[in-house]
Each structure stands twice: as C-alpha cells, then as structure tokens.
Write a sequence for this structure.
C-alpha cells in the first residue's frame, strides 16, 4: 500500500489542492511543503469556516499530523507568525506540530520592496507577481547571499548579512527604481523578534523523513502553485521562482525519488490563472463571468480576479509526463453544472493551416504561440446539480461521460473528483493510500 504521496497542481495553481490534502490527511502522519512561500493560498472549509493557509501545510487542521516546511521553501516570518496566530484563534495550535527546516530561506522586507519596485517599473510587461518577494528571495538563495532559518541562531552574523544585503538592495531601490531605501533596524527587528519562536520549531527535516519512511508512516508532500508556474517547465517568464513540479519534492525536502509511491495531479475541470502570461484556452465575456461567479475565482492570496478558460488536455498531458503522475484528481465539477455545452481543448493547430502543431507533442515554445489556436471538442452539459455528490454512479450520465472522456484523453486514472468546497463533497474512486 502507498505510504508517500505527492499532491501537486497540474495547472497555474489554485486547482483546489488544499482541500484534497486536507481530505486525505485524516490518516496521515506528516504533511510536507517543499517549495514556494506565502504566495500560495490554500483555502480549506473546516466546520463551515473558511481557513486560508499560506505557508503552513494543510495537515495542520488535523490534531495528530505533523506539518513540515522543507528547505526548498522561502519563509516570511511576519506572515508565518500571523498565520500561527490566526490558527490559534481558531483553536488549532501549530507551535508543537510545525517543523521547519533550518535550510529554508527567509523572505525579508527588502525582497518585497524589490518585487514591487520591479513590477512597477516593468509596467505593462510585468509578470503579475503576488508581490510577496518570492522572486528576489529565491534569487538571493541562488546567488548565495540569502538568509537562512539557521542564521537566526547567531544574531551577530545575521546583522552582518542584513547589512551586506541592504547595501546591495538599497543602492538599486534608490538609484535605479527611485524608491525609498529600507531601514536596517526594521529589517533586523522583524527577524530578531520572532527568532526564538521560529528556532523552537526547527528540526532536522531529512532525518525525520528518512525515519518516517523507514517506519512506513504516511506522508503527503503538498505542492504549492502548479506545474505551469514551475520556473523550469512553466510558461516562462510568467512563472514563479521555484520548482513546483515533482522534482521539487526531492530537492526541497532531502529525500530521493524512489521514496515516492504515488503522485496525484490536481486539475480543475476548467482552468484559471492569476497574473499575466499565455493562456490559450482563455474565455471572456459571459463564460468568463460564469466561471468567476460560480467558481468564486478570486485569488486567495491577493484577491485578484482570476482569468478563466477551458480545460487544456495538451497541457494536462505535459503535466502528467513532467510529474510522472499516477492519477488525477478533478476538482470543481459542480462549477460546470449550468453550462449548456462544455469545451475541452484536445489539440493545437496553426491558424489557417489544416494540421495540428505536432500531434500529441508538447515540445513547443508556449510563449511564441501567437498563431496557434486550440482545437476543441464540445460535450453536452448536464444541467443538473452535482454539488456535494459523493459517488460516481450518482452523477448525471452526461457528467460521467465528461469525466470518462477526460480519462480516455489523458490515459491515466481519475482517482478523485471534487464536487464542492467541503471535505465531504468528494468522490473517491481509488484512495491513494489504499492502492
Ligand atoms: P510570484 O510567485 O509571486 O513571484 O508570482 C509569479 C506568478 O505566479 C504570478 O503570475 C502569480 O500570480 C503566480 N502565482 C504565485 N503563487 C500562486 C498561487 O499560489 N496560485 C496561483 N498563482 C500563483
């Protein structure tokens, strides 16, 4: 039986991973985040209450689960402390149940200032980042001038590192971006104030995971963002700054690929994206409004309205290959309930040319797709509510046909279908931990 499961997004994030992690966490020992930072927003509905998590893994909602923040993440301490306090107000106590890798990198106020200044200067060619300082924090990590969680142990060294970083960033902020400089004391105090609390949560993450794997404990590795936002495999440069695909699990936690038993790709039955960048199946006007309202498509981190579009099977197949997906979980089926017809993009073709770009191939430059148009298959809608349905056989025949068609096109099993935001609104065809 599977013990280590990865749950990651196959699209541009916001696929509903948080709910699925939460749903599968009942019998789990550990939930581990391996990349990203507080750019993520995982929305959970617990006892009819909405809880949005940004950095703490979704497992925290369950009392017996240990949540781990791995070395591949970037952490904003200000935001993490806020999240801890928010959970405590909701009678969830994370201090003893969240373990943080000492090698995770910190997001500081100058990273946020740089992120915002850059986006402002780029103006119409901006990326549309979440403005949380994610890119600059990862750049610091790679350029080897980043500040790591373990630096909180030595305030003297921390001071030197912050001064060095501020020399560099303030020069750019003031002279190039014409923004205000960042004050050293504010930066230092932000870290010093939370150092003790954070250090009390620091643990040797790989060692804990090796032991857990040896002991056959159940572990979920929880992805943030999605495959198409991956720094290497996404729609560059309109991507985030980490590896949100399956490789990030290994580099971001310290375990090897053979330790992963089952990889679940979460996909909405339509698509959304926040921020800029190519989106071939994007819709506008009434259909966009329909998805926006019925699917409640506003970003949980920034509140921005998400762009919406039809499901793109070409990209989904790419996500299946890149991540070696075992199976898919389809979410938000109920959002399609009132549509007369539903489109699925099954191929791309060059406009005015009567052939596919390259059948079943994803080796194309997505960013230069100006002449490429989607080829759609149109399926009839079912015009009945599927909200809250918990068994496949209870779905309207046309909804079953829609799901079967997706499965046929992608060639891997659909193991879970989500029919609403609550934990219970879920159809499980195969439980990943029981196969
Ligand atoms: P960054 O991660 O803030 O640098 O933003 C880069 C791109 O990724 C932007 O298009 C963001 O909107 C997008 N992005 C980052 N995190 C998420 C997420 O959790 N869900 C959806 N989009 C995200």
């Amino acid at each position: 039986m599977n013990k280590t499961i990865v749950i990651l997004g196959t699209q541009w994030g916001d696929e509903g991973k948080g709910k699925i992690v939460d749903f599968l966490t009942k019998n789990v020992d550990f939930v581990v985040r391996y990349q990203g930072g507080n750019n993520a927003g995982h929305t959970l509905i617990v006892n009819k209450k909405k809880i949005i998590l940004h950095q703490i893994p979704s497992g925290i909602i369950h009392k017996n689960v240990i949540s781990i923040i791995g070395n591949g993440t970037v952490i904003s301490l200000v935001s993490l402390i806020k999240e801890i306090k928010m959970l405590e107000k909701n009678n969830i106590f994370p201090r003893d149940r969240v373990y943080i890798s000492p090698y995770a990198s910190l997001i500081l106020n100058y990273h946020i200032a740089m992120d915002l200044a850059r986006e402002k200067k780029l103006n119409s060619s901006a990326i549309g980042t979440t403005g949380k300082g994610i890119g600059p924090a990862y750049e610091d990590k790679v350029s080897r001038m980043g500040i790591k969680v373990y630096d909180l142990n030595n305030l003297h060294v921390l001071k030197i590192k912050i001064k060095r970083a501020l020399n560099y960033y303030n020069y750019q902020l003031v002279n190039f971006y014409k923004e205000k400089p960042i004050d050293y004391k504010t930066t230092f105090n932000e870290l010093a104030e939370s150092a003790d609390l954070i250090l009390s949560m620091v643990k040797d993450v790989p060692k804990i995971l090796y032991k857990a794997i040896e002991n056959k404990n159940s572990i979920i590795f929880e992805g943030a963002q999605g495959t198409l936002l991956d720094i290497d495999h996404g729609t560059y440069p309109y991507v985030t700054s980490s590896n949100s695909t399956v490789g990030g699990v290994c580099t971001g936690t310290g375990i090897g690929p053979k330790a992963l038993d089952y990889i679940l790709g979460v996909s909405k039955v339509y698509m959304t994206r926040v921020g800029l960048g190519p989106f071939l199946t994007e819709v506008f006007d009434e259909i966009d409004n329909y998805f926006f309202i019925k699917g409640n498509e506003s970003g949980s981190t920034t509140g921005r309205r998400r762009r919406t579009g039809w499901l793109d099977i070409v990209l989904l197949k790419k996500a299946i290959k890149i991540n070696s997906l075992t199976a898919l979980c389809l979410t938000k089926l109920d959002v399609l309930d009132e549509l007369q017809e539903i489109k699925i993009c099954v191929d791309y073709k060059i406009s005015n040319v009567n052939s596919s770009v390259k059948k079943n191939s994803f080796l194309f430059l997505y960013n230069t797709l100006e002449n490429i148009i989607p080829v759609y298959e149109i399926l009839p809608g079912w015009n009945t509510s599927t909200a809250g349905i918990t068994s496949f056989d209870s779905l309207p025949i046309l909804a079953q046909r829609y799901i079967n068609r997706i499965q046929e096109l992608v060639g891997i099993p659909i193991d879970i279908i989500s029919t609403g935001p609550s934990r219970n609104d879920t159809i499980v065809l195969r439980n990943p931990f029981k196969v």
